[in-house]
């Protein structure tokens, strides 16, 4: 089984509580963020049960018993795994895995949309529903100027305009049980990092039967230009030359100022850097499983 692409980046849940908050863009390079971005809406979801095992691992179950959401800290992928089984005691119909470095906003978009639509079997998201979107995730990303990229046989890639986020569709027939056992074989993948195609910092995997509107929710969160909230020390060092950091509302603190200063430095090896405009020029005013 392949090792995770990088060591987990420290987030606000593992660092000092008084670390300064900043606004970071793009989200693909902002780091994983706080697990509370995902867990707090689940804690508030009506009828969902929650169990904490071994003092660290968190498990949620839907009222209908068909959905399981797991956040085991020390596992291989270490992030969030979501499964759905029409038969609550049966083999999952689909599985989605967000590794430990996936931005929390990408996970939250998926889980929030899942919770909101589960009661009526996603009727509002199906054809004729008020939230139905006929376009595929690939089409919606294309509308946002994501371009075809990569030449790996058996896969189609789209790359974000800044070159640091990617969407992959695996081509050809794949046995569904292979996807359930090994996320790397999943039909769809979102990823981000300095090289999101071949060496991403984080990956999110979606098996073939994952509802399209749930994948779309995560894809749109990834494509959103709005800055996201992070604690300054949690931003991956390798990403600092390529992100824009603004102080969060309120008085700026020394640690946030240090992150701002570091983000403006040029990469140590410019020839190896991705061909995008670094730091402040890269982003001005936003257009507003683990197993």
UniProtKB/TrEMBL annotation:
Disordered: annotated span: 247-291
Any Pfam family: SPDY
Biased composition, class Low complexity, residue ranges: 253-267
Protein's name in the database: Uncharacterized protein
Species of origin: Streptomyces lavendulae subsp. lavendulae
């Amino acid at each position: 089984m392949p090792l995770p692409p990088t060591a987990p980046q420290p987030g606000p849940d593992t660092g000092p509580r008084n670390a300064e908050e900043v606004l970071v863009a793009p989200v693909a390079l902002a780091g994983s963020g706080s697990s509370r971005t995902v867990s707090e809406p689940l804690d508030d979801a009506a009828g969902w049960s929650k169990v904490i095992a071994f003092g660290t691992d968190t498990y949620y179950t839907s009222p209908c018993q068909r959905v399981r959401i797991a956040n085991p800290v020390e596992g291989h992928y270490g992030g969030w795994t979501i499964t759905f089984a029409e038969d609550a005691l049966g083999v999952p119909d689909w599985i989605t895995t967000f590794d430990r470095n996936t931005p929390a906003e990408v996970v939250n978009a998926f889980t929030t949309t899942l919770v909101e639509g589960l009661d009526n079997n996603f009727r509002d998201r199906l054809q004729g529903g008020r939230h139905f979107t006929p376009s595929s995730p690939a089409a919606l990303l294309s509308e946002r100027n994501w371009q075809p990229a990569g030449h790996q046989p058996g896969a189609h890639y789209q790359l974000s305009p800044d070159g640091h986020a990617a969407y992959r569709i695996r081509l050809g027939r794949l046995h569904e049980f292979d996807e359930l056992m090994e996320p790397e074989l999943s039909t769809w993948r979102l990823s981000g990092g300095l090289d999101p195609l071949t060496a991403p910092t984080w990956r999110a995997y979606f098996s073939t039967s994952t509802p399209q509107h749930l994948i779309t929710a995560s894809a749109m969160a990834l494509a959103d230009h709005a800055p996201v909230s992070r604690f300054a020390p949690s931003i991956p060092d390798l990403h600092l030359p390529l992100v824009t950091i603004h102080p969060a509302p309120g008085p700026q603190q020394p640690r946030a100022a240090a992150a701002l200063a570091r983000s403006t430095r040029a990469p140590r090896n410019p020839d190896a850097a991705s061909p995008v405009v670094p730091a402040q020029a890269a982003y001005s005013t936003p257009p507003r499983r683990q197993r």
